[in-house]
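BUG: 3D viewer hangs when loading the predicted structure for this chain

Environment: internal workstation, default settings.
Expected: structure renders.
Actual: progress bar stalls at 90%.

Input used:
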Amino acid sequence: MNTIHSLRPFEEGLTKAFFGKSFDFDDRVSWKPLVNVEESDDSYRVELELPGLSKEDVHVRYEDELLIVEGERKNSESTSDVKIWRNERPKGKFSRSFRLMKDIDSDSIQAQMNQGVLTLTLFKSEKAKARLINISGE
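Structure tokens produced before the viewer hung:
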């Protein structure tokens, strides 16, 4: 028995424990885009490198304090008379998810795709923003 396949029940159990549901592990992701995540006083900024993809190839959603970015890079059309010498850019489905603080203003999330970089801006709610606290007394 393949060791990887013998771990599948364990992996599915952990996934169900953490996410409250199991996923179709036969429909796995093929690759993961590189990501930068930054935090400022009033927002989070998430940048994903997605060269060669358009905004129609990518889907973004925010649910239960989880930011999920999914999509697919399809194989390019090639003819039978072309020999591929090297193909290092991964193809297929991708998915990245990030658990952020619960105090995100989900109505003001912004997404912009520019030159193969998807930039997501998630604004913090007023309740979550850092602020100075006045001290009373002497």
